[in-house]
Protein backbone atom coordinates (compact mmCIF):
# COMPACT_ATOMS: atom_id res chain seq x y z
CA UNK A 1 0.00 0.00 0.00
CA UNK A 2 2.83 2.42 0.87
CA UNK A 3 6.09 2.59 -1.06
CA UNK A 4 9.42 4.23 -0.29
CA UNK A 5 11.23 6.11 -3.05
CA UNK A 6 13.93 8.72 -3.55
CA UNK A 7 12.36 12.05 -4.43
CA UNK A 8 13.34 13.52 -7.80
CA UNK A 9 12.92 16.94 -9.40
CA UNK A 10 9.53 15.90 -10.77
CA UNK A 11 8.24 15.51 -7.20
CA UNK A 12 8.94 19.18 -6.46
CA UNK A 13 5.31 20.48 -6.40
CA UNK A 14 4.07 17.66 -4.16
CA UNK A 15 7.09 17.99 -1.87
CA UNK A 16 6.66 21.77 -1.57
CA UNK A 17 2.97 21.33 -0.66
CA UNK A 18 3.79 18.74 2.00
CA UNK A 19 6.68 20.78 3.38
CA UNK A 20 4.45 23.84 3.71
CA UNK A 21 1.76 21.76 5.38
CA UNK A 22 4.33 20.34 7.80
CA UNK A 23 5.74 23.75 8.70
CA UNK A 24 2.18 24.93 9.44
CA UNK A 25 0.80 21.96 11.37
CA UNK A 26 3.97 20.59 13.01
CA UNK A 27 6.44 23.48 13.46
CA UNK A 28 8.19 21.55 16.27
CA UNK A 29 9.01 18.83 13.76
CA UNK A 30 11.12 21.11 11.56
CA UNK A 31 14.14 23.33 11.99
CA UNK A 32 13.06 25.38 8.99
CA UNK A 33 10.41 28.04 9.67
CA UNK A 34 7.24 28.56 7.65
CA UNK A 35 8.65 31.88 6.38
CA UNK A 36 11.77 30.08 5.13
CA UNK A 37 9.65 27.32 3.56
CA UNK A 38 7.51 29.88 1.73
CA UNK A 39 10.65 31.42 0.20
CA UNK A 40 11.32 28.27 -1.84
CA UNK A 41 9.82 28.14 -5.34
CA UNK A 42 9.39 25.10 -7.57
CA UNK A 43 12.63 25.68 -9.49
CA UNK A 44 14.66 25.79 -6.27
CA UNK A 45 12.78 22.74 -4.93
CA UNK A 46 13.72 20.82 -8.09
CA UNK A 47 17.37 21.70 -7.58
CA UNK A 48 17.24 20.58 -3.96
CA UNK A 49 15.57 17.28 -4.89
CA UNK A 50 18.00 16.66 -7.75
CA UNK A 51 20.74 16.73 -5.11
CA UNK A 52 19.32 13.40 -3.91
CA UNK A 53 18.96 13.93 -0.15
CA UNK A 54 15.21 13.44 0.21
CA UNK A 55 13.07 10.32 0.39
CA UNK A 56 9.31 9.95 0.19
CA UNK A 57 6.57 7.57 1.16
CA UNK A 58 3.83 7.23 -1.45
CA UNK A 59 0.30 5.88 -1.34
CA UNK A 60 -0.11 4.94 -4.98
CA UNK A 61 1.14 8.06 -6.75
CA UNK A 62 0.40 10.42 -3.88
CA UNK A 63 3.26 11.67 -1.71
CA UNK A 64 2.09 11.30 1.92
CA UNK A 65 5.38 11.77 3.77
CA UNK A 66 9.03 12.69 3.27
CA UNK A 67 12.33 12.66 5.09
CA UNK A 68 15.87 13.91 4.64
CA UNK A 69 18.50 11.18 4.48
CA UNK A 70 22.14 12.24 4.32
CA UNK A 71 24.92 9.67 4.55
CA UNK A 72 28.19 11.29 5.56
CA UNK A 73 30.72 11.51 2.73
CA UNK A 74 34.09 11.71 4.47
CA UNK A 75 36.00 8.46 4.75
CA UNK A 76 36.20 8.35 8.56
CA UNK A 77 32.51 9.12 9.16
CA UNK A 78 31.00 7.31 6.20
CA UNK A 79 29.45 4.74 8.52
CA UNK A 80 27.06 7.44 9.81
CA UNK A 81 24.01 9.08 8.27
CA UNK A 82 21.73 11.92 9.33
CA UNK A 83 17.97 11.54 9.22
CA UNK A 84 15.59 14.48 9.23
CA UNK A 85 13.27 16.16 8.84
CA UNK A 86 10.81 13.25 9.05
CA UNK A 87 7.16 14.00 8.30
CA UNK A 88 3.95 12.17 7.49
CA UNK A 89 0.75 14.03 6.55
CA UNK A 90 -1.74 14.03 9.46
CA UNK A 91 -4.36 11.88 7.69
CA UNK A 92 -1.74 9.11 7.28
CA UNK A 93 -0.23 9.31 10.76
CA UNK A 94 -0.93 6.11 12.66
CA UNK A 95 -1.38 4.24 9.35
CA UNK A 96 2.02 2.58 9.05
CA UNK A 97 3.29 5.05 6.42
CA UNK A 98 5.95 6.37 8.82
CA UNK A 99 7.11 2.82 9.51
CA UNK A 100 7.40 2.08 5.77
CA UNK A 101 9.48 5.22 5.30
CA UNK A 102 11.71 4.35 8.25
CA UNK A 103 12.16 0.78 7.01
CA UNK A 104 13.10 2.16 3.60
CA UNK A 105 15.77 4.35 5.19
CA UNK A 106 17.12 1.46 7.29
CA UNK A 107 17.27 -0.85 4.26
CA UNK A 108 19.01 1.84 2.22
CA UNK A 109 21.47 2.52 5.04
CA UNK A 110 22.37 -1.16 5.35
CA UNK A 111 22.77 -1.50 1.59
CA UNK A 112 25.07 1.53 1.58
CA UNK A 113 27.30 0.28 4.39
CA UNK A 114 25.93 2.75 6.96
CA UNK A 115 26.11 1.47 10.55
CA UNK A 116 24.44 4.29 12.44
CA UNK A 117 21.51 6.59 11.72
CA UNK A 118 21.38 9.80 13.77
CA UNK A 119 18.56 12.27 14.35
CA UNK A 120 17.48 15.07 16.65
CA UNK A 121 14.04 15.63 18.13
CA UNK A 122 12.42 18.32 20.29
CA UNK A 123 12.01 17.18 23.92
CA UNK A 124 8.28 18.01 23.81
CA UNK A 125 7.56 16.03 20.63
CA UNK A 126 6.15 13.01 22.47
CA UNK A 127 4.61 11.36 19.42
CA UNK A 128 7.83 11.46 17.42
CA UNK A 129 9.85 10.22 20.40
CA UNK A 130 7.44 7.31 20.92
CA UNK A 131 7.69 6.47 17.21
CA UNK A 132 11.50 6.63 17.09
CA UNK A 133 11.87 4.55 20.26
CA UNK A 134 9.50 1.90 18.87
CA UNK A 135 11.72 1.81 15.76
CA UNK A 136 14.68 1.02 18.03
CA UNK A 137 16.33 4.44 18.31
CA UNK A 138 17.98 5.23 21.65
CA UNK A 139 18.75 8.57 23.21
CA UNK A 140 22.47 9.26 23.55
CA UNK A 141 22.49 12.89 24.60
CA UNK A 142 21.07 16.35 24.74
CA UNK A 143 22.27 19.30 22.68
CA UNK A 144 21.86 22.41 24.83
CA UNK A 145 20.82 25.72 23.27
CA UNK A 146 20.14 23.91 19.99
CA UNK A 147 17.35 26.16 18.79
CA UNK A 148 16.49 29.78 19.49
CA UNK A 149 13.04 31.03 18.75
CA UNK A 150 11.79 34.47 19.74
CA UNK A 151 14.76 34.82 22.05
CA UNK A 152 13.95 31.54 23.79
CA UNK A 153 16.60 28.82 23.85
CA UNK A 154 15.55 25.16 23.50
CA UNK A 155 17.45 21.90 23.78
CA UNK A 156 17.29 18.99 21.33
CA UNK A 157 17.47 15.29 22.12
CA UNK A 158 20.02 13.24 20.18
CA UNK A 159 18.95 9.76 19.05
CA UNK A 160 20.68 7.03 17.11
CA UNK A 161 19.85 3.65 15.63
CA UNK A 162 22.50 1.02 15.01
CA UNK A 163 21.65 -0.84 11.80
CA UNK A 164 24.44 -3.42 11.64
C1 LIG B 1 6.67 11.65 13.89
C2 LIG B 1 5.77 10.95 12.87
C3 LIG B 1 6.51 10.77 11.56
C4 LIG B 1 5.42 9.56 13.42
O1 LIG B 1 4.54 8.93 12.52
P1 LIG B 1 3.12 8.37 13.05
O2 LIG B 1 2.43 7.71 11.93
O3 LIG B 1 2.42 9.50 13.73
O4 LIG B 1 3.65 7.32 14.11
P2 LIG B 1 2.88 6.12 14.80
O5 LIG B 1 1.42 6.45 14.91
O6 LIG B 1 3.26 4.88 14.12
O7 LIG B 1 3.56 6.14 16.22
C5 LIG B 1 3.38 7.22 17.09
C6 LIG B 1 3.39 6.72 18.51
O8 LIG B 1 3.15 7.80 19.40
C7 LIG B 1 2.02 7.51 20.21
N1 LIG B 1 1.38 8.80 20.41
C8 LIG B 1 0.42 9.41 19.71
N2 LIG B 1 0.14 10.62 20.21
C9 LIG B 1 0.97 10.78 21.28
C10 LIG B 1 1.17 11.81 22.23
N3 LIG B 1 0.49 12.95 22.16
N4 LIG B 1 2.10 11.62 23.18
C11 LIG B 1 2.82 10.48 23.25
N5 LIG B 1 2.68 9.47 22.38
C12 LIG B 1 1.77 9.63 21.41
C13 LIG B 1 1.21 6.54 19.40
O9 LIG B 1 0.35 5.79 20.23
C14 LIG B 1 2.32 5.70 18.80
O10 LIG B 1 2.91 4.84 19.76
P3 LIG B 1 2.65 3.25 19.77
O11 LIG B 1 2.93 2.76 18.39
O12 LIG B 1 3.62 2.75 20.77
O13 LIG B 1 1.21 3.12 20.13
C15 LIG B 1 4.49 11.77 12.62
O14 LIG B 1 3.69 11.84 13.80
C16 LIG B 1 4.74 13.17 12.12
O15 LIG B 1 4.97 13.37 10.94
N6 LIG B 1 4.71 14.16 13.02
C17 LIG B 1 4.88 15.56 12.65
C18 LIG B 1 6.31 15.87 12.25
C19 LIG B 1 7.30 15.52 13.32
O16 LIG B 1 7.14 15.89 14.47
N7 LIG B 1 8.35 14.82 12.91
C20 LIG B 1 9.45 14.43 13.77
C21 LIG B 1 10.51 15.45 13.75
S1 LIG B 1 11.95 15.01 14.68
What's this entry about, in short?
With about 160 residues, the chain is α+β, with helices and mostly antiparallel strands.
Give a written overview of the molecule.
- With 164 residues, the protein is an alpha+beta fold.
- The protein has a single domain (2-162), classed as 3-Layer(aba) Sandwich (Aminopeptidase).
- 32% of the residues lie in helices and 36% in strands.
- The chain has five helices and seven strands, in the order βαααβββαβαββ.
- It has helices at 12-25, 34-38, 42-50, 97-111, 126-134; strands spanning 2-6, 54-59, 62-71, 80-88, 116-121, 138-149, 152-162.
- Strands 1-2-3-4-5-7-6 form a seven-stranded mixed beta sheet, with helices on both faces.
- A hairpin with a 2-residue loop joins strand 2 and strand 3.
- Helix 1 crosses helix 3.
- The mean pLDDT is 97.
- Bound molecules: coenzyme A.
- Coenzyme A (COA) binds at residues 26, 28-29, 84-88, 93-94, 98-99, 121, 125-128, 130-131, 134.
Amino acid sequence: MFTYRTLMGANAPAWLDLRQEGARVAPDGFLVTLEEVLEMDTDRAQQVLDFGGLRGVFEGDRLVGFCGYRPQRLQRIRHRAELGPFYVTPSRQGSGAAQVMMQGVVDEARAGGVAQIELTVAPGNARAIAFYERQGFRKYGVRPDAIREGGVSEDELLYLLRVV
